[in-house]
UniProtKB/TrEMBL annotation, chains A, B, C, D:
Originating organism: Paractinoplanes globisporus
Domain Gfo/Idh/MocA-like oxidoreductase N-terminal: 6-126
Name recorded for this polypeptide: Gfo/Idh/MocA family protein
UniProt xrefs under InterPro entries: Gfo/Idh/MocA-like_OxRdtase_N, Gfo/Idh/MocA_oxidrdct_glycsds, GFO_IDH_MocA-like_dom, NAD(P)-bd_dom_sf
Gene3D superfamilies (UniProt xref): Dihydrodipicolinate Reductase, domain 2 (3.30.360.10), NAD(P)-binding Rossmann-like Domain (3.40.50.720)
Transmembrane domains' residue ranges: none
Lineage: superkingdom: Bacteria
Pfam families named among the record's database cross-references: GFO_IDH_MocA, GFO_IDH_MocA_C3
């Protein structure tokens, strides 16, 4: 406990920026007691009320409107970048150049070229931690399945991943950065990036992408009159409609070096599915599934029980699973947890890395984020013909 | 009721042949009372004990071992062909030539060429009904969803279909006709044919298939010592192992003339899934799903209820749904029914067609079965490049 | 197979009478082949169109309007009595006196005194089978659980039973025999009789009933203008409303000789629950549940799997469970079945008993039906004070 | 924001004490921004390592082993009492006498007499807030249902409550305060107190309790060798076994002034149920349910949707439900939350009451806790005869 405390800041106080701010606030309350509570230095958002709210709410000393104030601050050791994808590169490069540890949100950048530049910037700052926010790698249930895949279930042979959201379903919802950019910058980049990463978490390296098919169902959206946060159900809109530039739906198949095959279906216009990330893993010795709508459980089936009493088991996460013991104040099974907790565990891993503690698996680094973009690029190319990686 | 009764027979008394035999026995007990009970003439199976059991059990007058005895019998007016796919053409042609009405199991044939010949044979027998056994088109729940797609839900924009079985999971299960034939004759033909058909039931004509990826996980199987029926868990096997010739897993994406896109994942080696045909339909005004593991229900979500109390509804099939009123002796919701009932409804539709009654939608004809094979052929070709239909 | 075939008839062609008629039609198609198909002699119903429909539909030779025509017919060997409870005694006594085997619906009678008389009548006809229709004892899933309770799960310690229906929810539904009679003749007799019986199926003899609380929520109903069948959603009603005489809701607790305790909640006015019979069994070594809304599955949890992958298993009924192998034409897991099938299995057991075949567990006899009424009587008395049996 | 910050402390750093400590840490991060972050003064636990861990983890300035150090501290304005029930009275009386605001855990005390004394102590300190920890009243889902009961669903007619835990299932788990005391001090006091309170939250005042039946299935337990926390799966035990003094299972029925009836089943030995609090509410115009194993959702059914597409809806909690908007960092539906969050909302309500803010419903006071004990006392008495309240 004699370690110096780490000064942290968050750039972007929109939907996910709040989760980062809360995560730093609570990162030292989970797991082992070794980490000093980080110093909560500042939150920055172009829109001052968002920065002010998040700073006041989560106990950060300052609210800023210019991210450079954070990059320039000597009090800040580590920074989360939680703004639209198009801003990731510039801020990351500046923060790394200023000597900060950087946790940048996914997808790492809008293009492979940008991501490549970010990886080079990280390589030029070898003493600093560079990380990308594949938060689902911090899910207790997903890690519980991972343990089984590396154990009794054995390797994945067939991976089926759906990520269905409804944030874009309503054509009355305002235009935002999420709807701008070329093919692949839509649902694929926004939520497909998570699913592509999870597939590799379980199956290893992607070697082929095939059959990509995309559709845009809502072709224009109203211009917002105020600042739209997240999926922006509440902002006022004008009568003017702006064209949507990227895909609402995307589906494709994949192959892995392990021999596994994958099926992906992505949608941001799936009525009734607020945030359904569902994966089904068919393994050598059984089957497992996870559905984000019930984040604290998973299912598994294997040949253990006798046939007459065998079936898919619903397992609730308990203290014997990864990230649960002391990861929640009360930590028994069925107590419940959710996506916001994954951000706390991610923040803890990032801070531990900075502090040189190696108990938790480290966050994926920017090279990993670059790899993810290469797979996404392959997905876009696979519209015409199978692509090999 | 002054109509003459129809003489019926079943060729093949394996897994699905029994369902046909039972279906004829009970076809006149469902729905309206107009149809005279058919005369249950004969069941044929190469393996005599199967023929004898089915005939005795379901009340057919004769058991035969040679299917020609059925084709040649003047007492038989209509015949179900429920044998391995490779035998469909020869028997269908002979039966049609002999003046019989024919209900042939799916997939119609092992190849487009065979199916084309069968369609020609049917065309040459214009007074006879020719039908193919896409049984799921008789599911009350699937038809309940169809009504909504044609009504309040509106057109399907994204179709996601899984058909996951475990019949091939155990490498100790014996070799059978299901594991022989070239690429596409495996899980794609066996259960994928159903799913491809259901997708068209909801989305209309397929115009593109992309990204087909296949895998064979169990590469050889033991030679059976007795006659293996269905998925043959119970037959004795020899030490000798025979190569599996076709795919266990198959995944691909599709496009429809309507603009809809589709995602397919098929497996016959999915531990824990006896028979999981699951479809998710994302429509213009909502979402609906069906899962064959709970055959008497479906789910639906739309914008009807107020947001604070809205969510996916689990609907149990009741007498106000298609095929339920008088389709079961007690017919209230949650009373339960299953796949065997779909065969009864299919038999009833086939017999009604023969009798000239037009209350029920007719069975898909062999031209439809041919079309289905053309899509399957496209799926096989789409391994290398997108295929347009 | 040289046995003479049994002549069967059904008295009452209402909701459940149809299930009996269909059951006799198909009883010889299930399980072993020993039983000759019964002769389908006659169906009787006071309302001629119901008798005619059921006879024509299920293939019975004659339709009658007077049940005495059945009792008097020398062609009839066995009869199902499927009319309102108040008629059970008179018809049973007459049928037994006429030398018939009798399967009478539950509850055996409206009163213990009536049931006692019926048991005496049965005792006076020792060569005839007397049976009562506790159909859920024929459910494959319930029997699968029973096997475990007698095996690995061990004795039940706590039984929780809900039976929630909505047939009485709508105050616009017509008056019928179900709403007439004193306290206990309502939801308790109608569906509670099943649940009380199932509790004893699992826990053994009831020794105490406590805390009975009843409520009538719909206090009058419109007089029907036509003949109301079953729950009668479709019959026209008059403006005149008739008082409901018995309870809509009933709840109580129980004790068993084994030391087990029970919790019961019954309702016929439970919106959204067409027919939810749910039981939860807490046993010495684990837990099991059954819910009639998904009749072909059950759940179980025990200490078999390792803690990190343990949870409640959803088991789909397959051919290795009781009553499934050859109990359905296609009989693999998830194929689906329902309550109508339970009646087929019950009819088979009844006919086997008549034929002297002892493969299946026999139907509960009228003495058992009398015992059930004694427990129901105790439930009614336990409004004031605990009752010991 | 010019309000002085409130000094808070927690007495008892066992299972639930941690949840209180975390709750104070985060209470000002939720909902509106008006509340200054409370000063985290101290955590006390007889077992020093527990106090030290909780203080360090959640950022409290001091760890104490004697609760009097907290009661005596001028820095402390408000205190949570989170120790065994037998200690509630003494600590509450001392804390109130010392001028503290008190939030005491449920059940308020081991007896009505103790609770009465506490209420008197609270009455003697009129300027101080007295509260009891019925945390489920802070569940978003439960409050979402409450809104409907007061709105479209209408009054509850039949309440069915199960609370099934497995913490006592394993006879190898150590003796603790939970297993000591007379009848009613077992599962009834421990978890039944919550369910009795929730029933009144929905149905209003209890006027009758009937038919109480109790059972103790694990009659002795090993003496722990270390300090056992919560359900104490991890502490070492001696060979010596100590008698269990109270009930494992408890079931009874209830009546409410509104005319509603209730069914209760409680167990702490229910294998496979870590913490299943399930309520089913049958209301005038529909049905709703909540199950704590999925804390962020509820189900509802009403006559809104057309019959053919009607069924039970699964509603995921979103920002339009009580306590969700800004109650979580990311607050969209399916993001997930759990029991620990309920404690944060409870702490916020308690602190708001102290600060004179009236936005949230206040915590139930000790008079309410006393009333709860009176109902529990009636439950115990209703073993012999119905009890009226
Ligand atoms: N890991 C995960 O599960 C999630 C990751 N994300 C990622 O996080 C990032 C942000 O997404 P959301 O929070 O949903 O977006 P958002 O639109 O809700 O918030 C972005 C915020 O950035 C602010 N901003 C814009 N320009 C700025 C600038 N120059 N300087 C400072 N602030 C600026 C905006 O005012 C806004 O408040 C994206 O990269 C997204 O892909 C988003 C949601 C979940
Ligand atoms: N519509 C549906 O849901 C289903 C359709 N099917 C289709 O039904 C057909 C049969 O499949 P299964 O019943 O599963 O096969 P199976 O292998 O269980 O049964 C085939 C039967 O045909 C008999 N047979 C073989 N050669 C014969 C001959 N020359 N003459 C007479 N009988 C002969 C065999 O002895 C065997 O009993 C296939 O086309 C299959 O694709 C199968 C299952 C379900
Ligand atoms: N085992 C089970 O799961 C079930 C058992 N039941 C029992 O079956 C019996 C009948 O119930 P439902 O079929 O629901 O009643 P229902 O009211 O639908 O049918 C009764 C039929 O009896 C006819 N009937 C009335 N008086 C008659 C007479 N004197 N002679 C001949 N027919 C006469 C009526 O016209 C009517 O069609 C009851 O005892 C009930 O408790 C009912 C439903 C399910
Ligand atoms: N609202 C809710 O959902 C819940 C409420 N509870 C209630 O909270 C209370 C505590 O329960 P648990 O935390 O489960 O018990 P626990 O046994 O886990 O913790 C009690 C703690 O009190 C400490 N302690 C004992 N004597 C003390 C003393 N004289 N001074 C200071 N500390 C002392 C013990 O060392 C132990 O750490 C009980 O009243 C229980 O009914 C418990 C669980 C959930």
């Amino acid at each position: 406990m004699s370690q110096p405390s780490i000064g942290v800041a968050v750039i972007g106080a929109g939907m996910v920026g709040r989760a980062h701010a809360n995560a730093y606030r609570n990162a030292a309350t989970v797991f082992g007691l070794g980490l000093p509570a980080p110093r909560l230095v500042a939150v920055a958002d172009l829109h001052e009320p968002f920065a002010a709210d998040a700073a006041a709410r989560y106990g950060f000393a300052r609210a800023e409107t210019d991210w450079r104030a954070i990059v320039d601050s000597p009090e800040v050791d580590a920074v989360s970048i939680a703004v639209a994808n198009g801003l990731h590169r510039e801020i990351t490069e500046a923060a790394l150049a200023a000597g900060k540890h950087v946790l940048c949100e996914k997808p790492l950048a809008p293009s492979v070229a940008d991501a490549q530049a970010m990886v080079e910037a990280a390589a030029a700052a070898p003493g600093q931690v560079d990380a990308v926010g594949f938060t689902f790698r911090r899910s207790p249930a997903i890690n519980a399945i991972k343990q089984q895949v590396e154990g009794a279930l054995g390797p994945v042979r067939h991976f089926v991943g759906n990520y269905w959201c409804d944030y874009g379903y309503d054509p009355g919802r305002p235009m935002s950065w999420r709807y701008l950019g070329g093919p692949g910058s839509g649902v694929l980049a926004d939520i497909g990036s998570h699913l592509v990463d999870l597939a590799e978490f379980f199956c290893g390296a992607t070697v082929g992408v095939q059959g990509t098919t995309m559709a845009t169902l809502v072709t224009d959206r109203p211009r917002p009159l105020g600042v739209a946060m997240g999926h922006a159900g509440d902002v006022q809109v004008s009568d003017e409609r702006v064209p949507v530039e990227n895909e609402d739906v995307c589906t494709f198949t994949t192959s892995y070096a392990s021999g596994a095959v994958g099926t992906f279906s992505l949608s941001r216009v799936a009525f009734g599915h607020a945030n359904t990330l569902r994966i089904d893993l068919f393994c050598e010795n059984g089957t497992a599934s996870f559905d984000l709508t019930r984040p604290a459980e998973f299912t598994i089936a294997d040949a253990g029980p006798a046939t007459a009493v065998n079936g898919v088991r619903t397992v609730f996460i308990g203290p014997w699973h990864p990230y649960v013991a002391r990861g929640l104040p009360m930590d028994f099974p069925t107590v419940g947890h959710g996506q916001n907790d994954f951000f706390v565990y991610q923040a803890r891993a990032f801070l531990d890395q900075i502090a040189g503690v190696t108990t938790l698996p480290p966050c994926p680094d920017m090279a990993h984020g670059l790899h993810n973009l290469r797979v996404l690029e392959a997905v876009v190319s696979a519209t015409d013909k199978p692509v090999q990686l």
